[in-house]
Amino acid sequence: MYSRQDFIARFRDVETATLLDRLATRELADEAKDAIHQVLHERGVPAEPLNRLRPDIPEHEVAQYAQAIKRGPCPRCHGRESGIEVRESYWVWSALVLTKWQTKRVACCRKCGVRENWNALGFCIGLGWWGIPAGILITPYQIVRNLLAIASRSERAAPSKALLVLAKRNLLAQRQFELERMATNS
Question: What is the pLDDT of residue 90?
Fold first, then answer.
């Protein structure tokens, strides 16, 4: 087992950005964590932001951030008519023996989600049928999925799993930005 002094000697040659990344993304022994804190403190990195770095974001923080996204304005139209949610539209494109289909996920209000479904529906009707055999088989399926999404009126009070994943990604991106800023300032 390494002592705190062993870790300090080992970490003195490591770049600040790498140390910050280790502190934020890995479970570390207390000795290693203390050594990183000391080395970064010697380099002038403030202690307060370091104390907030941890390898995972607690689920309650993710849920809280997802609720804030849900109550906020729509990223597309900036309206507040309905809650923000990750909404899906279903696309298919075919040409002879080639057929491509996808599910597109967008965080937006219901109105923007329905507009996306109408666009996908028109795209499927116009360009989905032209492949044999997959286009003929998949196009009706994608059309029905878009129609069901348009007809759906359910608004969930709690964020969906997809919105929780989006919230966690956003929080991790913010953490990465903060790490990069701290690394360039020291």
Answer: 98
